[in-house]
Amino acid sequence: MLYLVGLGLGDAKDITVKGLEAVRRCRRVYLEAYTSVLTVGKEALEEFYGKELILADRETVEQEADSILKDAEVCDVAFLVVGDPFGATTHSDLVLRAVKLGIPYQVIHNASIMNAVGCCGLQVLVHHQRKCIVNGGDHVENEKCFVTDNLLYQIV
């Protein structure tokens, strides 16, 4: 069985109860370490979860996914993702590969960056307009800003 477990956005305790139960029963636990920033150290997660974590960088996930899935054929394997498991296409690919190989999987969702938009004073959906938070870069002297309908606005 392959578990894709969202860790949420804060610290080790942001994992859901369902996610923690899955992690604790898994023989192998991979920590995806390239699509998002982990706000706590790997060691803090290992201590709280009671499991050793295997760091999975981009190369491991994209080029060695078969070894992760091979493990999941014979034992329970967790794949931990900061935020929500489907925040990156690589994670969807892992699920599609599992389905193709007949490996059962379960996705355990959690809060993602989309849930944190409100902290910036924005809403996820306002009158069907999408908003994108970007680093201002050259546009606004590195101030935080957002883009809507191709117009750049500074967050105040």
UniProtKB/TrEMBL annotation:
Cross-referenced InterPro entries: 4pyrrol_Mease (IPR000878), 4pyrrol_Methylase_sf (IPR035996), 4pyrrole_Mease_sub1 (IPR014777), Dphthn_synthase (IPR004551)
CDD domains in the cross-refs: DHP5_DphB
Enzyme class: transferase
Record GO biological process: protein histidyl modification to diphthamide
Catalytic activity annotation: 2-[(3S)-amino-3-carboxypropyl]-L-histidyl-[translation elongation factor 2] + 4 S-adenosyl-L-methionine = diphthine methyl ester-[translation elongation factor 2] + 4 S-adenosyl-L-homocysteine + 3 H(+)
GO function term, MF aspect, one: diphthine methyl ester synthase activity
EC numbers: 2.1.1.314
Domain Tetrapyrrole methylase residue range list: 1-127
PANTHER family: DIPHTHINE METHYL ESTER SYNTHASE, DIPHTHINE SYNTHASE
Function summary: S-adenosyl-L-methionine-dependent methyltransferase that catalyzes four methylations of the modified target histidine residue in translation elongation factor 2 (EF-2), to form an intermediate called diphthine methyl ester. The four successive methylation reactions represent the second step of diphthamide biosynthesis.
Protein name, as recorded: diphthine methyl ester synthase
Provenance organism: Pavo cristatus
